[in-house]
Amino acid sequence: MAVERTDVIVVGARCAGSAAAIALARGGCAVVVLDAARFPSDTLSTHLLWPSGVAELAELGALERVLAFGAPRLRTGSASGAGFTVSGRFPAVDTIDFALCVRRTGLDAALVATARQTGAEVRERCRVTDLVWDHGRVTGVRYRDDAGADRELLAPLVIGADGRRSTVARLVGATQPYRAMPSGRACYFAYWRDNKPEWRSVAAQWRAEALLGTAFPCDGGLVLSLVQPPDAGGRPGPAEEIYRDSVSRIPELVDRLSGCDMVGRVRSATGLSSYFRRSSGPGWALPGDAGHFKDPVTAQGMRDAMRYGRLLGESVATRLGDPVLLDAAVLAWERRRERDCLGVYQWTNGLARGTALRPMEIELYRSAAGDDDLTTDLLGVFSRVVEPSRLLGPARLPGLAIGAMLRGYGGRGTVAADIADNARLAVVEGIERVLARKRPLPEIPPHASSAPGAEPSRPAENVLPQGEAHG
Fold first, then answer.
1. Which domains does the chain have, with CATH numbers?
2. What is the rounded (10 degree) CA torsion for 157, 39, 187, 67?
3. Is the overall model pTM greater than 0.70, yes or no?
4. Where is the region Disordered (predicted)?
5. Is the pLDDT of residue 113 over 70?
């Protein structure tokens, strides 16, 4: 078996992997990226980037390549429900004031090209089959190359940026989340030939009963339309049948898509669960969906994959020569990601409940529809410039509660129950955020072997839901 050495191995070349590779190469490291795909390559993804995600593309040096695909700049965000519409311009993030929806074939290829230009070596059609261990430390990978030959590659750090079904996570025994929340929604989406030029700069969302639907104009003259009905559990029915039925029950989405023809098949992801997995250990790290995943209802996945992939690369680039400093840097990176993302994770779980708008949500829509500052805050949560706790925290909840009670949405009993539930949830989530800053992360059981070059133990593979649904 051919054996090579490098500074860092990155498994997976999409958002998190390319971002980490770019940061490491900028830091002067020799980086080899392995991916089973050949680019351009599609992946199951709803691929909307709010301005904060577009700002990450700019930080990585990939934005101009991505803009060349011709996706329109989405400068307006619109959300409608219960007869109210909230619409406004996105607050700027590092001068970026627009969202983008670019299909993954182009976006991922642009990231790979940028990684190569920066100095990373990207090897396509290479599938990792095993990890190399030395005294409980990951020291490399074994993989099958594009010619079918088995090879071994050694490095002080292996980064598993290989998605929810991460091979690296499985081989280090980190597939079991330490924090998880099943989604109450399924996800179905399709592309339509867009015939509505007046909507080409608007990222729109609608709520109708328990349904949620969106329309995001993208490259190729298309619009990506996603629906998220409640997840019924068990085996879902035919995807296209569920999708078309859900669209038909959201009147505003029907109007948005009128005169548009669906292109290609309906794609789906069901049985989703948001989670945090332990994402650092001796010689390994898990950025992107491999370590942390949120339901696509808030479209945060790609932004976080790129941001924390980049921050991981920046954190370790100068510490690869000392295992103690390296492990400390990777652990600090993991703790930072948890602190930064926990509030958005909690907010996402609330929107993923699969229920109709609740009284205080209706009051939020009503209030924001006539309040530019509140609209900016609402859009700022999606763009990660406003914490969800500021939008629905102690300073604002009493006013929303009073407004909901005065208007009696669904009856006083329903309003009172929702107020009590929101107050309870605010306390529980606040405690969780405080504890996350103080409590150590759960330990990964030590690797069974302590002999140099010994084979790793084989943890049982976690059964994961179908599909890869990235926001």
1. 2-47+103-179+277-341 (3.50.50.60), 186-269 (3.30.70.2450), 349-438 (no CATH)
2. 100
3. yes
4. 440-471
5. yes
